[in-house]
Structure formats: structure tokens, C-alpha cells
Amino acid sequence: MTPDQDEKTPQEGLTKGGRFFFNLFWSTSQALADAAGSDRAWELIKPYLKLHFDAATQMLKDKFKLKTDDLYSLAVFLNYFNMFSGIILSNHNFFEHGYITDIHYCPFANLSEVYCRFSGEYSNELIMQAINSGYEVIYTRKLVRGDPLCQLMVSKKGHTIWGEVAKKPVEIPIPHWSDEEREYWQSAAFSQSWIYETNALVDFAGKEKAVEILRPYMKALGKSIALDLSKELGIGNRDAISIASIIEQCNQAANQKGEYIIHTPGRVEKELTECIFANASQDICADALEARSNGICEMINPEYEFRTIKRMCKGDKTCHWIIKKK
């Protein structure tokens, strides 16, 4: 069955961790594009994305022993890569010097052209450069432009692939990973992308100004998360425990581990001993996550606030956060 916008197979879409890190990445992408302009933002993020995709390509080659020396192998490789973002390529039409493939479902179809440029066009271009620099990827149709599907054209540089189809449409094998594997790969991909995006924002504005730029975007993200999860979790109370239960959903995606020190309706304190961002080079991550958590507070009960008093990314042995009345 061909996937569409409303019906997805279990192997499609974003996992819980993938969605968590994608939301951070996308909010930061918006902040960077709004502050620097899309063209400047593009230039700032390019070197980070290149490092990201060069490393990811080599890792995939080694782990899955994927070949890249013929069109069919390239199609398999791109299928693996796009699975990181919950996207599946289908309906491959092969020609002498390339192929065309469709995307009927994309979890980011309702986002902006700027994000599509970052994550779609340029990312696939970098992936192809890392896989086989003799080929290029071009988007001929896009969901974000109102087309019924996205369409990619992979062609040997200097050649056109229009003409008679060399063979009828074929389906390229899709990697069927366990839920745990999908969670790991998507979380790894988007968490690294978010770090790169924050680094690009710091390169543009400096650390202090970057935090100021990012804060309202993170707060808006927190409000959106609170709205979604309060319904999903059936939260009726508006106290510190309710707020903490939503924040815990986010923390689980970030593989945070720790113990509650205080856990009462009026005040919650927790000390973290492990976090995926503990050794992050930019402590902007803690400021961003604090702003996101305060967005959650504002949506659930604006009388409460979230504060971190210790941060591992600033050199403390543990992180320590508090939810309390203002």
C-alpha cells in the first residue's frame, strides 16, 4: 500500500524521542532564520550539516554494509537515510542515468519552505555528495508548495534522465527496524542536528544574544507541548506535580535520569545524574530547555515557574531543577 497523509505504516513517522528533538531543532531553525534571514541562516548551518552528513554516511556504510556504486544501491542508501526523519521513498522509476522517486507522506509537510530547504533539498544534496559525488538530487515537486507529493530526481551529473523508463516502477527495500532501533536513530539524528543549529545561532549572535533570540521560540514550543500532552495524559490538576509529569515526558526522550528530592503539589525538585546534553559545548541547551519548561508552566498554571540551579553543561556534577510558585 502506498502511504499517504492520513494513513501511515508503523515504520513511518517520528518516534517519541525523534519528535522531541525535532521540535527543538525546528524551533531553533525558525529562530535562526528569523534573526539572520534565510540566506544567511543557510550559510551558517551549511558547514555543520556537512560534518553531520559526512559522518552519518560513513557510519551507515560501515554498520549496514551498504553499496553505493550503482543506481539501485544509491536508492537503497537514500531509503535508509530518510528513515531517520520518518520518511519513506517509494515508486522508483529507473532511467539510464538516474531515477525518480516519490514521497507521499512527510511528517514535515505542513512546515515552511525554509525548513524544507534546510532538511530536504540541501540535506539530500549533502547526503549524495557524501555517498557518490558523481550524482545529484533535485526536488521536482514539493508538498510544501501545494503539490500532492514530493518527488526527487537522482541523476548522474551532466546527464538528463527524461525519456523512456528503463524498467517499470520498483519498490526499494525498506529497513524494518525495531521500535527501539528507530527511537535510537531518530533521537541521535535530531539531537545532533539541534546542537548544530544552536551552534550556528551562537556563531551569528553570540551566546547571550542567542539565548534572548531563542527564548520566545522555546517558550512557544513549551506551550504547544503542554497543550498536546495535557490532553494525552488526561491531566486535570494545575499544580507542580501536573507540570512535572509533562516535563518528565520530555526528559524521558532525552534519556535523563535522576531522583526527586521534593514531589508535592506545591513544589517539585529533581536532581539529574545523566542527560544526553551533559557534555554539550554550548550551555545554551539548558537555557533553551528552561524556557521551554516555563512555557509548559504558563500553559498549565502561570502562577508556577521552572528554574535550574545546577547544570552539568556548566560543569556541575548534577543538574537540579525546581518547579514552584512565583
Task: Write a brief structural summary.
With 326 residues, the chain is an alpha+beta fold.
What percentage of the residues does DSSP assign to strands (E)?
A: 15-25%
Q: Low-confidence parts lasting 5 or more residues at pLDDT below 50?
A: 1-11
How many individual β-strands?
8
Terminal residue distance:
53 Å
> How many structural units, i.e. domains?
2
Helix content: 40-55%
Annotated CATH architecture of the largest domain: 2-Layer Sandwich
- And the CATH topology of the largest domain? Muramoyl-pentapeptide Carboxypeptidase, domain 2
Provide mean pLDDT, rounded. 83
- Which geometry do the CA atoms define? elongated
Order of helices and strands: HHHEEHEEHHHEEHEE
| Helix/strand structural class | alpha+beta
Main β-sheet, spatial strand arrangement: 1-2-4-3
Rg for CA atoms: 21 Å
What is the makeup of the main sheet? 4 strands, antiparallel
CATH superfamily of the largest domain: Trafficking protein particle complex subunit 3
| CATH class wording of the largest domain | Alpha Beta
Output the number of helix runs: 8
Tags for this entry?
Muramoyl-pentapeptide Carboxypeptidase, domain 2; 50% helix; 4-stranded antiparallel beta sheet; alpha+beta; 326 residues
How would you describe this protein?
This protein has 326 residues and is of the alpha+beta class. The protein folds into two domains: 16-179, Muramoyl-pentapeptide Carboxypeptidase, domain 2; 206-325, Trafficking protein particle complex subunit 3 (Muramoyl-pentapeptide Carboxypeptidase, domain 2). It is 50% helix and 17% strand. It has helices spanning 16-36, 38-64, 71-83, 113-131, 179-205, 207-232, 240-253, 284-300; strands at 90-94, 98-103, 135-141, 150-156, 257-264, 267-274, 304-310, 319-325. The strands form two sheets. A four-stranded antiparallel sheet has the order 1-2-4-3, covered by helices on one side. The model is unreliable at 1-11 (pLDDT under 50).
